Structure formats: C-alpha cells, structure tokens
Amino acid sequence: MSFAQRSFDLGKVKKGEKRSLTYTFTNLGDQVLEVDLISACDCTTVDYDYKPVNPGESGVIKMVFDSSEKEEAETINIDILLKNTLPGTDVPIIERLEYSFDIIK
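User: That's the sequence. What structure does it adopt?
Assistant: Structure tokens below.
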C-alpha cells in the first residue's frame, strides 16, 4: 500500500466538531491487496468497502473524527491489517496511518 499521505494535522478543532479525512492509496505490489480490518479509536468512524484492490489500482479509506469526547491535543493511530502476509511467512502485513489535532473548548 502506497499512500498519497499517511498523516494529517487537523489543526485546531472545536470540542464537539466532526472532521472528515480521506486516505488514498495505490497497490504497488504484484498481488491483489485485501484489507482484513481497520482499527482506530472510538472517536473515529471508518468507511471502507473492503473490496480487493488489484496491482496498479487505487483505493480510498474515508474517516470521520468526532471530537465530542476529547479534552486535549492527541495523535490518533489507525491500524490497517491486511489479509496479505509478509513474503515467506504467515505474518499479516500491518500498515499505519495517523492524524493529530488540538482541541479548543
């Protein structure tokens, strides 16, 4: 997975505000890429269709950050677990994205 951008700085976010993020990626490998699971904190809603992405094709992962429960600045990690494994092993490939913000009360 090659991402156009792996990290976003949302800057100042008013408590209770929601912000949308879009992560675009391309499959630069020689195998079909399959996402098994995308994990983030409860403040993040993930929208992804989990369809296989052929070599050379692109995909989009959309997220919405809800700052309602946040009290201070933070960096949120998003883990992407692939069905694909590291070459010669049964170890799944894990990709990581992130976004950060400052809370304004």
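Residues 11 and 57 are 31 Å apart (CA to CA).
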